[in-house]
Amino acid sequence: MALPLVGIIISLPTNGRTCANNPCETRYTRHEVAAPRAVGLSGRTIVVRYDGHTVPVIPVNTPSANYDVTIASNLLRTLHPRLRKLNPERPFRPFVITSPNIWALWSKPFLASFKESPTVLFLPSGESHKRLSSVESLAQQLSTAGADRDSLLLAFGGGVIGDITGFLAAIYMRGIRYVQIPTTLLAQVDSSIGGKTGVNLATGKNLIGSFHHPQAVLADTDLLATLPPAQLRAGLQESIKAGIIYDAKLFRYMEQNAAAILNTKKGADPKPLAHVVAASVRVKADVVSKDEKESGLRMILNFGHTIGHAIEAATNYKQLLHGEAVAWGSIAALQVARARNTLTQKDTERVTNLILRYGPLPTFKATAAKLVALTSRDKKNRSGIRSFVLPTAIGRTEIVRDVTEPELLVATESMLTLMRRKP
Known about the structure:
Elements: E1 7-11, E2 29-33, E3 41-42, E4 45-50, E5 53-54, E6 57-61, E7 66-72, H1 79-86, E8 93-98, H2 100-111, E9 119-122, H3 132-144, E10 151-157, H4 159-171, E11 177-182, H5 185-191, E12 196-201, E13 204-211, E14 217-220, H6 229-245, H7 248-256, H8 258-262, H9 271-290, H10 305-314, H11 322-339, H12 345-357, H13 368-374, E15 388-393, E16 396-400, H14 405-421
């Protein structure tokens, strides 16, 4: 298939790092390419051109899997040829796992390139459905429909759909293929990448799961056009997180271009949001490539999640979107860092202000004591000791294991006080 016109090269440094005094910041060089030129790989450089648009294709390279994250508009309409290209010598029977709402909006472009319609299985939206019972129900439906080891699951939805589909692919017939087609900003920039799959228990989030990477992640930015504003803003909180922990340049871009990024009116320039998506994916891909199974570096991606997950549990996963809970959890973590003098007052205020700028964040009812108690169930804990991610500067973090309960109570109460004062 000819791929004409303008393209993009993403050059990754061979050692993955370029800054000795900032070990958590990776630099990527992007070169515009004049048309037309051969498409191919040269070392760790990728050149891609699709339909006259620049298309970032960001590799994820781990010991157990290598795959690409493709970010572009109009990907859905070329879906079947892309799946064939991923599986050139092996047959596949596609099964779509999605929600009724998403399918009602996007089924037509999704099916545009299929000669025969795939089997579609529905799962209601929402964190409350991220349970083992949903996995069992879907597995039974797969079996009834004759799914076998040549089946290919297509996760077409947000983070919940992606996590459940990935887990189902990991355990159905002891492992089958799947592709992530994320429909929310949060899923495009974070949860679809890295192979983490799983479901919740009543006692905590993501306590049952496995690492099972997709064959590819296809992030169609057109899908973001129908997102409710709250969903978009919740996803942007994960992008802010990426800037805080790893990419100071992304953080500054989101500071300086907030109005343009948040402008979703018809006719608005899509480039600022697309820039944030690509930069966020690069952070996630780079971290996962260096630490596939969260033995060290990958834990920094959990910044804000310790208290964030506790907030979700305390509100029965019904009041806040995941990104909103992580935003409040990030503010609490900032208070721990400030109290320890690992982060300056100036940077603490900058980060807090940016998180709130991409609000409004919903309020909720919970005591600091309850939230701190719920952190004891966090899956990042080791031997009963909390692992906590703290920023040391914008773009840098450290993982500590000596945050005490009194420290966490004070920081969480400070976050709750800010929430109550919020207009």
